[in-house]
Design a protein that fits this description.
Helices cover about 45% and strands about 10% of the residues. The chain contains 14 helices and ten strands. The protein has three domains: about 10-75, DNA Methylphosphotriester Repair Domain; about 75-180, Homeodomain-like (Arc Repressor Mutant, subunit A), CATH 1.10.10; about 250-350, Orthogonal Bundle (Arc Repressor Mutant, subunit A). It has helices at about 10-15, 55-60, 80-95, 100-105, 110-120, 125-145, 150-155, 160-170, 215-225, 235-250, 265-275, 285-295, 300-310, 335-350; strands spanning about 25-30, 35, 50-55, 65, 185-190, 195-200, 205-210, 230-235, 285, 320. The protein has a four-stranded mixed sheet with strand order 3-1-2-4. It has a four-stranded mixed sheet with strand order 7-6-5-8, sandwiched between helices. Strands 9-10 form a two-stranded parallel ribbon. By secondary structure, it is an alpha/beta fold. A hairpin with a 6-residue loop joins strand 5 and strand 6. It catalyses: a 4-O-methyl-thymidine in DNA + L-cysteinyl-[protein] = a thymidine in DNA + S-methyl-L-cysteinyl-[protein]; a 6-O-methyl-2'-deoxyguanosine in DNA + L-cysteinyl-[protein] = S-methyl-L-cysteinyl-[protein] + a 2'-deoxyguanosine in DNA. Keywords: Activator, DNA damage, DNA repair, Methyltransferase, Transferase. One of its GO terms (molecular function) is methylated-DNA-[protein]-cysteine S-methyltransferase activity.
Length: about 350
């Protein structure tokens, strides 16, 4: 991490003082209430022995805390901050540009404010994101057969060794070995419950996950191994289509998804995922019910594992499976999201 978290005593002092300097870099979990907050939250301050500090919202969620409804530490639960939207638009207009802090300042923004806003939203800075986009475009050129030196210069890398190292870290391949490879595209999609990452080729969507999903890195590695593809940040037609369909879904207008899907899985997993898509929005099923529905009533545990291995959230609605008692069970995007999705669909279908 670029930011080294101070001691817990320092952070507790900042919590008491509601110091905004740590917003985006540190969060507090309150054991007595089970919630986590910004350090600047206006709620009554807890005792020192009842708090735990975290670097990211993902760590808070993984530790079992839920987001505070007062200070809303999950910035994804609302529209992006104006500075985020403005810079994302600028990046889309000039993805090949070598963005610098001076460019951000020239646009009238404070560089540290921008850094914190992007860290809160995506877990990376704007400059890190812009660098990924440049590398993605360079990778496209390499796959198309351009020379390494041409791709390097277009990506604004002065050092050949630095360019090769960066491409290898991003795509898992040395630049010269990318020629002729299939290129998958990856991009962020904003939703009311947090940003998602979508990965697709020209024909189908392979992955759609919330950024906090622990298994995301494993899913990406599995996809690359199965397809022999490289991944670059950018847009493919299925990503545009699923973004529009998610927009209609989260607006409460439609729970129908027609984007072509190509999730990587075994024949049994795909059978379970097809079963999940037959569960109507606004309803739920149990693991045993789903097992019976696909004709494998004795495979309840295997159905549970396949449900957890689903790489396309929301569209393949693994959130619609609950425990036999009706209790919410595990969900890779966080139980609070599962609860939100089920309630959203209930309102959508009954409204």
């Amino acid at each position: 991490m670029l930011f080294q978290r101070p001691s817990d005593d320092t952070l507790y002092d900042a919590l008491i003082a509601r110091d905004p300097g740590y917003d985006g870099f540190a969060y507090v979990g309150v054991r007595t209430t089970g919630i986590f907050c910004w350090l600047t939250c206006a709620a009554r301050k807890p005792k020192r022995e009842n708090v735990q500090f975290f670097d990211t919202t993902a760590q808070c969620l993984h530790a079992g805390f839920r987001p505070c409804q007062r200070c809303r530490p999950m910035m994804g639960t609302g529209a992006p901050e104006p500075v985020v939207s403005t810079l994302l638009d600028a990046l889309e207009r000039e993805p090949e540009r070598r963005w610098l802090e001076t460019d951000i300042i020239a646009m009238g923004f404070d560089a540290s404010t921008v850094r914190r806003a992007f860290k809160r939203r995506f877990g990376m800075s704007f400059l890190e994101m812009a660098r990924l986009r440049r590398l993605g475009q360079a990778a496209e050129r390499l796959v198309s057969g351009d020379s390494v030196i041409d791709a390097q210069l277009d990506a604004s890398f002065d050092s050949g060794s630095g360019f090769r190292a960066a491409v290898t870290r991003l795509l898992g391949e040395a630049p010269a070995r990318l020629r002729g490879k299939t290129m998958l595209k990856a991009d962020w999609i904003e939703t009311p419950i947090g940003p998602m990452i979508a990965i697709a080729d020209r024909r189908a969507l392979h992955i759609l996950e919330f950024l906090e999903r622990k298994a995301l890195a494993l899913e990406v590695h599995k996809l690359q191994a199965a397809t022999g593809s490289a991944i670059a940040f950018g847009r493919a037609a299925p990503i545009d289509q699923i973004e529009a369909e998610l927009g209609a879904y989260f607006a409460g207008k439609s729970a129908i998804f027609t984007t072509r899907l190509a999730p990587q899985g075994t024949a049994f997993e795909r059978q379970v995922w097809d079963g999940l898509r037959r569960i109507p929005a606004g309803t739920s099923a149990t693991y045993s019910g789903l097992a019976a529905e696909i004709g494998k009533p004795a495979a309840v545990r295997a159905v549970g594992r396949a449900n957890g291995a689903n790489p396309i959230a929301v569209v393949i609605p693994c959130h619609r499976v609950v425990g036999v008692s009706g209790d919410l069970t595990g969900y890779g995007g966080g139980l609070w999201r599962k609860r939100w999705l089920l309630e959203h669909e209930r309102r959508m279908t009954q409204g």
